[in-house]
Automatic annotation (TrEMBL):
Residues 29-394 form the Aminotransferase class I/classII large domain. Its cofactor is pyridoxal 5'-phosphate. This is Aminotransferase. Pfam families: Aminotran_1_2. GO terms for molecular function: transaminase activity. It is an enzyme of class 2 (transferase). Its EC number is 2.6.1.-. Homodimer.
Length: 398
């Protein structure tokens, strides 16, 4: 009898499990549309020129690697605040944003979840139905009961905005609502600015706690355009949480660079909140790693590198949009009768294709085209070389 005799074998992570299956697949035409990673036109993970330039500058004056402050690099946190709220914004200028460097967007979400559990232990959490798989798991691990608000209607393959609004309007005061700031994962459908106004009105009327997850800023319409939703919450006089990820926008997945920002009522409140966030960090991993944060801080803090980053990010965004159009065209050419035009109204890395689990399994087993069982495909992994094969394969299972 061991201490671990009763430990159950947990199911494999659905997406990372797909990766393992993909790696073992011997089909020479195989295409991985499972994981949410941007690949360039050659199917390669990009190393951005702005990142290389920042690293070169950093190497020119190498620094010893002491511990960072618990909340991370000061210039990094400052850069995040300016990026998320705007350098000229009232929240930034008044100093009422508490920002900490996080281990990717995931780490930022978890710091926020742990802090919220202390603050309001009885609160429930609502995530969209469907949502990024890890939202539920992460808030559940933090000790919350996690429910959903309606978001996507599988029958019409469209947003269920009326359902979303009704569910928010019925939520108990204090409920934590996780909202995708842009590029909804997994559906690719974002709500319109006018719909955001209605969501904000419901959040305000019901006294809900908004937690905006911004993992794809710059992938829908642009950095400022995608960040505009933050300005709407500020204008409504709300206090709220924002998690930022630079995994995709800087192609720095393995460096784990993200941040949590909490907009407070005033500067003094922000200082108190920051002191509590630091306890969450100190008792988990003490302080963040240096390299990724230093790279991002360097790029954000240098006008030329920042301009280069914006250009490179625009390149990724434009290429994804072109692939969406090519997918719609290619599916039609491959004989798909159904109107697949909805793919171009979706934004960000993903498309909810509307394909059934059976069709997705066939795509994988017969054609080596890997998406999730829910029908989610990463359009950011398509390129001129694999798109025809993907279109023909999809046409055969439809
Ligand atoms: N939120 C959403 C909606 C995401 O899609 C992701 C990345 N898949 C994250 C958060 C986490 O990002 P990171 O890899 O930086 O932890």
């Amino acid at each position: 009898m061991s201490l671990f005799s009763a430990v159950e074998l947990a199911p494999r992570d659905p997406i990372l499990g797909l990766n393992e299956q993909f790696a073992a697949d011997t089909n020479p035409n195989k295409v991985n549309l499972g994981v949410g990673v941007y690949f360039d036109e050659n199917g390669k993970l990009p190393l951005l020129a702005c990142v290389q330039a920042a690293e070169k500058a950093m190497m020119a004056t190498p620094k010893p690697r002491g511990y960072l402050p618990i909340d991370g690099i000061a210039a990094y946190d400052d850069g995040v605040k300016k990026l998320v709220f705007g350098a000229d914004s009232e929240p930034y200028r008044s100093g009422r944003v508490a920002t900490v460097q996080g281990l990717g967007g995931t780490g930022a979400l978890k710091i926020g979840a742990d802090f919220l559990k202390h603050l309001n232990p009885k609160a429930k959490v609502l995530i969209s139905d469907p949502s990024w798989e890890n939202h539920r798991a992460l808030f559940t691990q933090a000790g919350f009961e996690v429910g959903t608000y309606r978001y996507y209607d599988a029958a019409t393959r469209q947003l269920d905005f009326d359902g979303m609004l009704a569910d928010l309007q019925a939520a108990a005061a204090g409920t934590i609502v996780v909202l995708h700031a842009c590029c909804h994962n997994p559906t690719g459908y974002d709500i319109t600015p006018a719909q955001w106004d209605q969501v904000i009105a419901a959040v305000k009327a019901r006294g809900l706690t908004p937690f905006l997850d911004m993992a794809y800023q710059g992938f829908a319409d642009g950095i400022a355009e995608d960040g505009a939703v933050i300005g709407k919450f500020v204008a409504a006089g709300l206090t709220f949480f924002v998690s930022t990820s630079f995994s995709k926008s800087f192609s720095l997945y393995g460096e784990r660079v993200g941040a949590l920002s909490v907009l407070c009522t005033d500067k003094e409140e922000a200082a108190r909140v920051l002191s509590q966030l630091k306890i969450m960090i100190r008792t988990n991993y003490s302080n963040p790693p240096t390299h990724g944060g230093a790279v991002v801080a360097t790029v954000l803090g240098d006008a030329a590198l920042r301009a280069q980053w914006e250009q490179e990010l625009a390149g990724m965004r434009t290429r994804i949009k072109a692939m969406r159009q090519a997918l719609v065209k290619g599916l039609k050419a491959a004989g798909v009768k159904k109107d697949m035009g909805f793919i171009t109204t979706q934004v960000g890395m993903f498309s909810y294709s509307g394909l059934s689990k059976d069709q997705m399994v066939r795509l994988r087993n017969e054609f080596g085209v890997y998406g999730t069982d829910t029908g989610r495909m990463c359009v950011a992994a398509l390129n001129e070389k694999n798109i025809d094969y993907v279109c023909q394969s999809i046409a055969k299972v439809m």
